[in-house]
Specification:
Elements lengths: L1 E7 L4 E7 L8 H12 L17 E4 L2 E4 L5 H4 L4 E5 L6 E3 L2 E2 L2 H9 L17 H5 L12 H5 L12 H11 L8 H10 L10 H5 L6 H10 L15
Parallel strand pairs: 1-5
Antiparallel strand pairs: 1-2, 3-4, 3-5, 6-7
Helix pairs in contact: 6-9
């Protein structure tokens, strides 16, 4: 198999080529680890190796994936594997991208609990939990952001995973913020600029449908920017 790994940073990039055999059940991360045992200077991230931390996301043959979850045999094309850093992000070195966008976006979009603290535990019913439970699976891997075509037209579009986080707080009964105010802030950051390309849905390693989350936030908007969808959910 011909393996190409994109190296370097924003100032200089190049592809380094390797000829390797791959094992039937080998993941992309295991392949990188094997190459790095003798190469020793390829930069990439990995921590949990269990599809939880989200740090090992890379682009493989033009598809954003989690390296620890994705099998080489499922991604190889014409006996070739091309591994690159995720698109739309600043490259620190080789396959490592700058994750500061996540922290900055959390602050800008106020993605944290608001309201008075609970006395004791903040209880809710199973039905209340089910409204947003799937959205809590987001591991901030940035795969959806890397694939989002809306960013081709609007550089200020917050990105699919950010709106999934909005959904999580808007539909969490424990959050006491004004729900419409949250939606208004989401609108300032591009809520209605999603072009519904569905790429976020196709690449999410946790099978979260951010496009659905965006539509639900639009549907719940009491002051819609485009049209009245005829329903509210909070």
């Amino acid at each position: 198999m011909r393996l190409l790994i994109k190296r370097g940073n924003l100032d200089k990039t190049y592809f380094e080529e390797f000829l390797v055999d791959f094992k039937e059940d080998e993941t992309v991360l295991e392949l990188l680890d094997r190459i790095n045992r003798f190469k020793r200077d390829i930069a990439y991230r990995s921590f949990c190796r269990s599809s939880i931390c989200g740090t090992c996301a890379v682009k493989v043959n033009d598809r954003s994936v989690l390296a620890c979850k994705s099998k080489v045999r499922e991604l190889i094309q014409n006996n070739e594997l091309i591994i690159e850093p995720l698109d739309r992000s600043k490259v620190v070195r080789d396959l490592v991208i700058d994750h500061s966008y996540i922290e900055d976006s959390y602050k800008k979009n106020k993605l944290y609990f608001e309201g008075e603290e609970c006395e004791g535990e903040c209880l809710q019913t199973p039905d209340e939990l089910r409204k947003y439970d799937k959205q809590t699976d987001c591991i901030l891997c940035m795969a959806c952001y890397a694939e989002c075509e809306a960013l081709d037209y609007d550089k200020n579009f917050a990105g699919p995973f950010i709106f999934t986080k909005y959904f999580r707080f808007v539909f969490d009964s424990r959050d006491k913020s004004n729900k419409q105010q949250r939606v208004e802030l989401a609108k300032q950051n591009g809520l209605y600029n999603c072009i519904n390309c569905q790429k976020c849905v196709m690449v999410c390693p946790k099978t979260i449908a951010s496009a659905f989350d965006i539509k639900m936030l639009q549907n719940g908007d009491k002051n819609p920017s485009i049209q009245d969808f005829g329903s509210t959910f909070f």
